[in-house]
Amino acid sequence: MLRMVVLRLLAMIPLVFLVATGVFFLGQLSDVDPAENIVGPNATEEQVAAVRAELGLDRPALEQYADWLSGAVRGDLGESLYTKADVTTSLTQALPITLSLTFGGLLVGLALGVPSGIWSALRAGRAGDRAVSLLATVGQAVPGFWLGLLLIIAFAIRLPWFPAVGYVPPGESLTGWLHCLVLPSVSLGLIAAAAISRQTRSSMIGVLQQEYVRTALSKGLSKRRVVVKHALKNAAVPVVTVVSFQVTTLLGGSIVIERLFAMPGLGALAINAVVRRDPDVIQGIVVLTVIVIVLVNVLLDLSYAWLNPKVRSL
Amino acid sequence: MSEVKVPAAAVSGRSGSRLLSRLVQQRATLFWAAVVLLVVLAALLSPLLSPHDPLKGNIREGLLGPSADHWLGTDKLGRDVLSRLLYGARVALLAGLEAVGIAALIGIPLGLLVGYLGGWPDRIAMRIVEGVMSVPFLVLAIALISVLGPGLTKSMAVVGVVYAMTLLRLTRGQALAAREELYVDGVRVAGAGDRRILFRHILPNITPPLIVQVTLMIAGAIIAEATLSFLGLGVQAGQASWGSMLSDAQASIRESFFLALPPGLAILLTVLAFNQVGDGLRDLFAREAKGGSLGVNPVHHESGSGQPPPPGLVAADPLLRVRDLTVSFPQPGAGRVTVVQGVSLDVAKGEILGLVGESGSGKSVTAMSLLGLVPDPGRVAASAVELDGRELTGLSFEELRKVRGGAIGVVFQEPIASLNPAYTVGDQVAEVLREHEGLSRAQARARVVELFEQVHIPEPDKRIRDYPHQFSGGMAQRVMIAMALACRPRLLVADEPTTALDVTVQGQVLDLLLELRAETGMSILLITHDLGVVADVADRVAVMYAGQIVEGGPTEDVFRRPAHPYTEGLLASLPRNVRRAGRLPSIPGVVPPPSAWPVGCHFADRCPYARPQCLETPVELSARGDDRATRCVRAGELTLAGVGDVPAAGEPLPPAAGRPVVKADPPLISTRIEKRP
Amino acid sequence: MKTTDPGPLLRVRNLTVTFTERRSTPWRRPGAVTAVNDIDLDIEPGGTLGLVGESGSGKSTTARAVLRLVRPSGGSIEAAGFEVGSFGRRVPIAYRRAVQAVFQDPLGSLDPTKVIGDIVAEPLGIHFGLRGRERDKRVAELLDQVGLASHHGGRYPYELSGGQRQRVNIARALAVEPKLIILDEPVSALDVSVQSQVVNLLEDVQERTGVAYLFVAHDLAVVRHASDRIAVMYRSRIVEEGPADRICERPAHPYTEALLAAVPDPDPARQRLQRERRRELRAAAPAAGPRPATGCPFAARCPHRMPVCAETFPGWTPVPDGGRVACHLFGGEGTARPSDTHPDYQETSR
Q: What is the pLDDT of residues B422-473, one digit of tens each?
């Protein structure tokens, strides 16, 4: 088991390297010149060239890449061309915010999605199931930021229960932190809940038709035991897969939600960096998200091993 | 490829109209398709429909509520919301089509190719896809947009490329699965080349899921467009897009929350419509409707004819007594279809009753209905189901579950599939004991080891810790039997217990059942299609055909002198290990489906002895002698051939019943048997 | 008829098929499974060879190797004048014309999106370039030959019964007038009453067209009805081979004997004997030992196991009434044989 984790972590290195390299060289293809952005539209050729030299942008791409890479392996992801802020520091400040949102959303998604999916599967085809399914379909059709907007209108403006914008670090005030996370987590989580609920329902229905469920019934077990012990563990495998997709989606979705709720997370960094083209920042964000996602997936793989003994015995 | 002449018209007409008629049944899908059409129309006709210029507004008329002039009011800059909404539909749909078009053009052909080729092209492609998909969609889109610069066309191209990865993976998965299908081997052997296989056979088969996916993707792309425009990475500032309208709405959220509603609802409705159409298509293409929750249907009590069945099906000292058991399922367009019709039988104490029949005979449903395990839409009714004098009809789920696994144990056909892959076998057997007998964990474990010994599983104390996939079929079936025996049942229901096993293992399992019967005195209801298995272990046999019992009696008598033409035909057509004597006798035709059962004899249209009167009225079971029953109007006049009468060339007839079974038998298998005195 | 011996239609020598297991994890070395181990087969033109064995014996893999659906890792297959081993990725179209197949799953082997008429017509187009009316006529003929009506041509596979589907598969195989048809468990998915219909149809077809069959099945009784000769396979090896009646009445190999004892018979009197026999055999068998890595694969279950059995796979010994057996009981020097078994074959061990 430990070996599997270590190997999975080692396998992560080439992936991160691949993605970082891809993003770097794609960036080289861009016709947006950060130097022009910095000196402004009225600058002369010479001024632009001077800035470019100063920033090291006139060096060959490979040299720039080697430079970035040698820094990156030491944990130095470079600095912003515009603010001169250290990328590693900016990321370490922004990441907790984004992660709080992502896991807040995941929590809401799981808490609503799994039970509703099971409930729905057990009465497949009947009114209750149709209602839940309809809600889930609607949930999947709602854009997260719109939902956030509605939540702000309802629960921050009309009923001033939660802050409309802003972020409170947990170190400053734990309740403040939880408070400010509610609305964004719900707006992210409801959509994840819809996807998780649909998947739970369909894999539960599939499992309920398996022969071992019939066996469990033939043993005279109660319905509750059949569902909770025999069906759920087997139905969980595809649900875990969907959850791992959802983590990726949530992480991306939190970019928009951060913007909506004016939280200084990775999203705010990313959008600014894209608009101005700030290569090191973009690079850093991509690498960081990939690492986070791979780590989450390793965790999920461990849960597969628990759920499916066949995987374990390898 | 042109169709065969005769059916050509029928073909296209049939399949097309059938899909269409199913579509018409899906009212909801039609409704959502209409919504999609409306959005498309709004987009196409937006210049005509819009009451105002979507881009210009009078800033002094900003943030007006809905009015006759501005149905949906105006935004902060005084622009007409309705007009912007209509133009926004255009942007949304174009964006969706662009992204999905790019995705389909890249993803589907590539996916098809790598899926079919396999090997290193597949591995390389999948590594790339994996890499791309490990970055969150939005982060990736943002990174790529940073390269290309913002703008709707570029943004959606990026979205398209990202979606292409999803489609590639899906197509590849489908192609990979399709490649393993037997029909691909079939056409390959028929001489089809790679290209023909790929485009003529695999592509049509994987098209339905792709259509569904593409439809759902359009919905996704519309959300993506709105999101990117909301972030300012999509349409140019000021341009009408549902996303940018929401961005504007956010800016004036404290002055007018109404602005947030129209564009949001427009996105919601459009995306929902595409999703619903996609789901509807999925249901449409699915061959069989899925459904079914936990299938449990207790037996309802219904008073029957009150007439006892003829001898052959009754026992003097019955453990199980079933009267007038009927099982029906609802069928679309046909009301309820009866699959088991008035089955009455007894199982005596300590007896093995073989319930034999071909697929579609209703034998398994009969057995499952006794336990209340008929899947959900089914309805089970009987005038009596008595186990050891206790009436089981009308019992609730809770009452019946005490019987299942307690007084009645069950063994199914596929032992490995019947065991839960997620738990050890020891745990699964112990569970019955803990449930019914309230044993402690340690007690249950000790008893499981005993049970495993009883069913001859080697090293029981080790094997209880193994998972089902670590067992061979034969050993897994022993686990199932141990589980069924755990609470010392009076009746064991064995549904095709040997069918999935290799023939040499089959014998071992049958011997085990015989041994256990002798040890415990339990009765066994053995459901099987295999007459050889019945001959081997069953004391009595009931033959089922098309939902009815057609014959019953002591196994040896029935097989030697069948009283129903179906039994005769079945015995004759079974290939046996005897010298071949020309053609195998066979029963012409096929078993009719439940919806096509005639009023009269169900077997009449395949029966060589059929007379017009066979079809007129329902045929009842009648007594034959003092221990036989048959459902044939001509039973009295027919003399039918049984197993003793195989006219095999060069083979003496086997000895008649009653005579000692020895030397007279043909050289059966080995010299050793011949030598036996 | 030529006076000279045309030689066998199918000639398999030392065929070995090895599969590499799919790697469960990237860092694990893929294991190899030998599905077919050094087997020989011959089929004369117009003859039927039954290949019988339990699941996992390698019988279906053998069939698929002849069809070049799997790539052999050793040995040679000559069929209808072709050296199958020399084929690359592309199999010559002429080989597909000579050798056809019918598979176990009648529904699965038909493309679900095509109607029966098109399925049967496909090889006609590929091999003979038949089009339009001519082809339709031939399709109708073929359907008629297998006992289907022409209106079945417009049906989809899922609308037919199991037996009818298998008839479609036979019609498609017959469309190209092959010399050899590989029948891979052609009736095991069918109900008994339909099984015999299909076996009879196959016999009729053979009588009429002179096609040869490789009849692969697990059911010895069915194989006996359909075959002239039978080869018995156990765990990747052929252990016995010979005329069908001899194999089924006087088996030489202990495995064949066990297999025969397990074939259930609907005659309760005969079945009682069968049951006794199978119990005797099992009682005589040693407690299941581990399967030897080398040597005879049956050694672990064999009532006559000798030390040598675990070491080498036995060579072939001819059997008096035809065929041959691979068992240390009969061949080789210095091998003992229990005297109370197989008195008939005393002389064969010389």
A: 999 999 999 999 999 999 999 999 999 999 999 999 999 999 999 999 998 9
Q: Is A314 on the interface with C (CB under 8 A)?
A: yes
> With contact defined as beta carbons under 8 Å apart, do C263 and C256 qualify?
no
Give this prediction's pTM: 0.83
Asked whether residue B631 is assigned to any structural domain, the reply reads: yes
| Portions of chain A given CATH number 1.10.3720.10 | 92-313
Which amino acid is located at B94 in the chain?
L
Q: Which of B359, B503, B665 is nearest residue C263 as measured by Cβ atoms? A: B503
The highest-level CATH class for domain A92-313 is: mainly alpha
Chain C stretch 158-217, residues whose beta carbon is closer than 8 A to a beta carbon of chain B? 158, 161, 163-164, 169, 172-173, 175-176, 191-197, 199-200, 203
My answer on whether B258 and B402 are in the same domain is no
* H or E segment and range at residue C324: strand C324-326
CB atoms within 10 A of CB C100: 26
Contacts of C228 in chain B (CB under 8 A): none
CA angle B391, B397, B400 (to 5 degrees): 40
Name the closest residue on chain A to residue B220, using Cα atoms. A141
B551 with B660, same domain: the answer is yes
Measured CA to CA in angstroms, residue C257 lies from B298, B650, C117, C342 at distances of 47, 21, 45, 11
Helix H, strand E, coil C: the string for A61-74 is: HHHHHHHHHHHHCC
How many beta carbons lie within 10 A of that of residue A298, not counting itself?
Answer: 17
User: Do B304 and B158 share a domain, yes or no?
Assistant: no
Question: Rounded to an integer, what distance in angstroms lies between the CA atom of residue C252 and that of residue C327?
Answer: 9
Burial (0-12, 13-18, 19+ Cβ within 10 Å), C18: middle
Judge residue C188's burial from the number of C-beta atoms within 10 Å of its C-beta, 0-12 exposed, 13-18 middle, 19 or more buried.
middle
In angstroms, the CA B240 to CA B419 distance is 59
As a whole number of angstroms, the distance between CA A266 and CA A251 comes to 10
Q: Do C200 and B502 touch (CB under 8 A)?
A: no
Please tell me which residue, B430 or A28, carries the higher pLDDT value. B430
- The DSSP H or E segment spanning A93 is helix A87-122
Residue B3 in any domain: the answer is no
pLDDT, position A45: 82
Nearest CA to C183 out of A118, B189, B569 is that of: B189
What range defines the domain where residue B660 resides? Answer: 294-407+489-677
User: In terms of domains, do B34 and B144 share one?
Assistant: yes
Compare all CA atoms of chain B with the CA of A122 and give the residue at the minimum distance. Answer: B293
